[in-house]
Amino acid sequence: VQLQASGGGSVQAGGSLRLSCSASGNIASIKFMDWYRQGAGKQRLWVARLSTKDGRVDYAEPVKGRFTISRNDTDNTVYLQMNALKPEDTAVYYCNALAPYTPYWGQGTQVTVSS
After folding, report:
1. 60-73 burial string, b = 16+ CB within 10 Å, else e?
2. What pLDDT, on the 0 to 100 scale, is given for residue 101?
3. Residue 43 phi, psi (nearest 5)
4. What is the DSSP track for 45-103?
5. CA distances from 17 to 13, 24, 27 (A)
6. What pLDDT score does 42 carry?
7. DSSP-assigned beta bridge partners for residue 92
8. What's 27's DSSP letter?
9. What is the sign, positive or negative, of the torsion defined by CA atoms of 5, 24, 59, 44?
10. What is the pLDDT of residue 35?
11. Bridge-partner residues for 50, per DSSP?
12. Count of CB atoms within 10 A of residue 40's CB?
């Protein structure tokens, strides 16, 4: 599985961005698609999850009500719509595909939110 993330950028607090993660390869093996983020000097933290089997979604508390994870099966892309962004959302965002016993990571995309 190969993942290509895009869509990061710089916005002011209160603004919005949409991240994309395009998957290719053995897509049928993917059970979950996740987004993680890592701030400068901090550990990588989980942000959101989408189950490929039933479409169920889940979010970390800091982003609930502001971020939405979704997918487009036509082009094998998962999105992270980020609204009401805060400076503390500044981080490198990574998409992750979880297949049985094997995680796959895309390259990160930088999101910077200024106050």
Report:
1. eeebeeebebebee
2. 81
3. -80, 160
4. EEEEEEETTT--EEE-GGGTTTEEEEEETTTTEEEEEE-S--GGG-EEEEEEEEETTEE
5. 11, 23, 25
6. 97
7. 38, 110
8. G
9. negative
10. 98
11. 33, 57
12. 7
The tokens 């701030």 sit on which residue? Answer: 39
CB atoms inside a 10 Å sphere around CB 106: 22
Cβ proximity of 111 and 91 under 8 Å: yes
Written as one letter, the residue type at 34 is: D
Q: Mean pLDDT of successive 10-residue segments in the chain (115 residues)? A: 96 98 94 97 98 96 98 94 98 96 92 97
Alpha carbon separation from 78 to 17, 45, 88, 106, 114 (Å, rounded): 14, 18, 23, 12, 26
For 31, other C-beta atoms within 10 Å of its C-beta total 11
> What is the pLDDT, as a whole number, of residue 15?
98
- SS3 assignment, position 28: helix
Using alpha carbons, select from 55, 58, 50, 100 the residue that is nearest to residue 79: 50
